[in-house]
Every structure is written in C-alpha cells, then in structure tokens.
Amino acid sequence: MTCVVCRAAVTEPVFANAWEKTRKLSACCSAACAQTFDPDQHWIPSTRPAAIDHMEETRLSRVGGERLRKGDRPGVVVRDLLLGGVSPSAVRKLLTATKLGSESTDIADMVPIRQQGWLGRLIYGAARAAGPDERTPEHVDDARRDLDRWTAHFARP
C-alpha cells in the first residue's frame, strides 16, 4: 500500500480523520502526510477498489445517471462511481450517453438525450430542458480529467 499524499510505502496506516479511517481507502504514511491530506486532491486510493459484478455496475450506473440528470456535479458522481468499483469504461460511457461529455459550450447540448427534440420536451417538460448550473462544460472537463487521472494511476506497474 502506498501513501495517497506522497506515494511512499505505508507500513502503519495513518488517516486524516475519522471518516477516512472508517473508509480505509486513503491511507497516509505519517501524521505529517495526514495533516496535508486534501480529499479533493488526494481522492484516488492507493489500491483499486474491488471489482463489482455486471448487475451491480448496471445499477450503480443507472443511479449515477439519475444523479447527473438531477444536477449533481459530474466530478462528484464520477469519483463516487469509481470508488464504488464501477469500471472506468462504464463511467466514460455514462458521461457520453448523457451527453455531459460534450465539448460544446451550448447549454442545450448538456441535457440528457431523452430530453432532446420536441417529443422529449413534450414527454419530460420543456422547463427541464435547460439543465442545472452544475452541468457546465468546465465541470464536465473536470470530471473527464478525474477519470483520466484514475485510469493513468492504475495503469502504472
């Protein structure tokens, strides 16, 4: 196991707070590293979470999609799914399927596919078509960077 802050080997895990101690994902090598721990910066665990079966991945992806449609910040949803054992390819697919991964700066491109067009607006309501503020291209770019960081981290030997 390696320290999530400095990447040194951890002999006796030290955690930044009670929450991290309960989760046991973000171990630090010393009290000094634990004091500098920042959950927004050091969110990738030292070991990959256990893989989940296909049915659970499908369920969690559906829950993640709902969270995105309801306006949760894409980066938070991506991190939660990855830490929950959902594969990076499923997370990337989710971002793409909801069109949150769009490079467009047009807010109309940030809505879920099912809300596009006149039929979608008729069924799901035109008032929801604009989408919440948390789904901006910048937030989506942050989520994609988090996903790329995760993939690069666990691709290392």
Describe this structure in words.
By secondary structure, this protein is mainly alpha-helical. The chain has two domains: 1-47, no CATH class; 54-155. The protein has helices at 18-23, 31-36, 54-69, 74-83, 88-97, 117-124, 137-155. It is globular, with a radius of gyration of 18 Å. The protein starts with 17 loop residues before the first helix and ends with a helix. Mean pLDDT is 80; it is low at 100-107 and 126-133.
Features:
157 residues, mainly alpha, 2 domains, 7 helices
What is the element layout, followed by pairings?
Blueprint: H1 18-23, H2 31-36, H3 54-69, H4 74-83, H5 88-97, H6 117-124, H7 137-155
Helix pairs in contact: 3-4, 3-5, 4-7, 5-7
The gist of it:
With 157 residues, the protein is mainly α.
Q: Structural class of the helices, strands and pairings?
A: mainly alpha
Number of strands: 0
Counted up, domains total 2
- Mean residue pLDDT: 80
State the end-to-end CA separation. 13 Å
Q: Helix and strand succession?
A: HHHHHHH
Strand proportion: under 5%
Main sheet specs: none
How does the overall form come out from the CA principal axes? globular
Tally of DSSP helical segments? 7
Gyration radius, rounded: 18 Å
Helix content: 40-55%
